[in-house]
């Protein structure tokens, strides 16, 4: 075994006498990304001896043993079959080698050998292949400061070991992407650039612009933090949450901008400029005010803003009472915070609550009697106010009330008269009793006699039995049964 190894080494080193003119140039090592391909740049020279060679055979070996590349593929070691190719032109002295699907087992030293007519030579220069598991992060470049609303172009430079197997590149921002540039030398690796043209906005300020390169099974990301210049926006007048009317208050003009606002202006509600400063001291807070923030990119106004002013109740003169079927009073109160409203009659002894309220209008509706005035009283934490409203009388209601009183009086008189007449009649009942008893007895006797003698022809005679059609006089006494007589006797003795 030792013998064959020595023989193989001597065969590799076989060369003519002027072997000193044989040389090869290649890097001492190359780094390739696992799973991708790797290129080994290589050039060689040989003694021409005034001869031109057109037929060459290039062979690559790994550590004097395994054949990595040969145009006769049957001689290539199994672990390299289908993965290697000679990309250089040997007639141009280019012996560059490409290895695909690089793996960790490919690490080691590689050498080149050339075979020509009459000459065979193995070059002593070696190159080591180093497999790298993780690619380098992309390098993102863009202007240091960009302006909101103006297009800008960013570049993502991706380093790779295989130009024929470029990674997939994506951006974090929407925009127009250009085709990748031609690979440029970047040490042993190649550098390919990808461009993105986009329009930044103020929302992009201090956000990352990312570029992601996806290799086979591996993903890396590079980014650049954007610095976006934009004019002021969200301008507001800032003060205490609430202030009392006519109090002294200091206001601040706030805004969002890049660069920060460098000047401010204050304006009254009629557009008059009041001051130029970040803050403003307002002496009468009842008026509306606005501020404008300005920077190098533009300006923006807050618009008129009213403060939350606290003030005691003020009852408007439009408050009034009306008489319909019921009395309806409306009290209009302006206050902050809102007021509690109560109603009183002329003597303030009886209070009424509002029957309804809408915004600053409070309504009292109902039967209040006949007051000439009604008082509206409003109160909040800052003070109180009241107003006396006239309550006009409704004539229809008065007429109804007077008529009702007259009817009640007449009814009372009628009851009195009836009771007196009943009393007099009760006093006359004993005298009438004996007369009625005699008449009743006589009538009964006659009735019995006529019943015996009577016939069908007697139906319409003026007898006691046919008294239905008899004509009664003022002095006559109607027919009554014994029970009726007994009843009359009872009433007579009362």
TrEMBL record:
One GO term in the molecular function aspect is: carbohydrate binding
InterPro entries reported in the protein's UniProt record: CD80_C2-set, Ig-like_dom, Ig-like_dom_sf, Ig-like_fold, Ig_sub, Ig_V-set, SIGLEC
The alphabetized list of GO BP terms reads: cell adhesion
Q: Which GO terms describe its cellular component?
A: plasma membrane
Coiled-coil regions listed in the entry: none
The leader peptide range reads: 1-19
Membrane-spanning regions, if any? 396-418
Domain Ig-like per the UniProt entry, residue ranges: 138-221, 231-308
Q: Which PROSITE patterns match?
A: IG_LIKE
Task: Give residue spans, biased composition: Basic and acidic residues.
Answer: 445-455
Top-level taxon of origin: Eukaryota
Under Gene3D superfamilies, the record lists: Immunoglobulins
Q: Which SMART domains match?
A: IG
Q: Where is the composition biased (Polar residues)?
A: 177-188, 434-444
Question: What is the annotated localization of this protein?
Answer: Membrane
What topology does it adopt in the membrane? Single-pass membrane protein
Specify whether Transcription is a keyword of the entry.
no
Chain positions covered by the region annotation Disordered = 169-188, 428-455
Sorted keywords for this record are: Cell adhesion, Disulfide bond, Lectin, Membrane, Signal, Transmembrane, Transmembrane helix
Kindly report the protein's main subcellular placement as a broad class: membrane
- What family name appears in the similarity comment? Belongs to the immunoglobulin superfamily. SIGLEC (sialic acid binding Ig-like lectin) family.
- Name listed for the protein in its UniProt record: Si:dkey-238d18.5
Q: Which organism is it from?
A: Cyprinus carpio
